[in-house]
Write a structure and sequence with these properties.
Elements (H helix, E strand, L loop, with lengths): L1 H11 L7 H31 L5 H25 L2 H25 L6 H29 L2 H33 L1 H24 L1 H20 L1
Length: 224
């Protein structure tokens, strides 16, 4: 799969030798993340509206409070854990949350689900901010400045395609599976992102070597 993706990216981007696999994994990684989020977003919005349009301002305030509460924990874990443990752990934490919401939505009677929907609205908003920030922190760690200028545009394309796919999945399947069952599809995509992040870790050395060779070529050409 990555070989085919690499060939495709090679035609669309100014790739250097050794960058193809890393870019392919990064593309898939961001695709999975935004696909997972855009499956959840329409469900979140529907639950937010169901709780009353007048309460939406309070839900966004709740999102801010949630971010303030989680951020110190997030910062502490970043300092204590190596990246190859922290990134998958973050995504699997959110997968566990999704599974808990799945069970709760199954058990709570519909007439009592408004408050669960409000909590879910806040959670999805916080989830989006954290998973995307973890992704871009990872990218800025492994790509050099010159590489990011050439390659990050393609990563944005991966995210855009993922967002479109996620929205399409929800539109196509919500009537068939129901919104609650779509949480499981989002969880599977997050697990895929966690596994792809591990594969990307293994490509870091080749990516660094490609950047070094590129810098030497620039120096040599400038010296000539």
């Amino acid at each position: 799969m990555t070989n085919a993706m690499t060939r495709l990216l090679n035609k669309a981007v100014d790739l250097r030798e050794g960058e193809g696999a890393a870019l392919a994994w990064s593309f898939i990684y961001y695709f999975c993340l935004l696909c997972a989020y855009y499956i959840l977003r329409p469900i979140r919005d529907e639950m937010g509206v169901a709780g009353g349009v007048d309460n939406l301002a309070w839900l966004f305030t709740g999102t801010l409070v949630g971010m303030m509460l989680i951020h110190p924990v997030f910062t502490s874990l970043v300092k204590k854990l190596p990246r190859n443990r922290f990134v998958p752990l973050t995504y699997r934490f959110f997968i566990a949350n999704l599974l808990i919401f799945f069970v709760v939505f199954q058990l709570v009677p519909h007439e009592n689900s408004v408050w669960i929907g409000r909590i879910f609205f806040i959670w999805v908003s916080v989830f989006n901010l954290f998973v995307v920030s973890v992704f871009w922190s990872f990218m800025t760690d492994i790509y050099r400045s010159a590489q990011s200028k050439r390659l990050f545009g393609m990563l944005a394309v991966g995210g855009t395609v993922g967002a479109i796919m996620g929205s399409s999945i929800t539109s196509a399947l919500v009537a068939v599976l129901g919104p609650v069952n779509l949480l499981l599809i989002s969880a599977l995509l997050l697990e895929a992102a966690a596994r792809v992040s591990n594969a990307l870790e293994k490509s870091e050395e080749k990516l660094a070597l490609a950047a070094l060779l590129d810098e030497r070529e620039d120096i040599d050409s400038g010296g000539g």
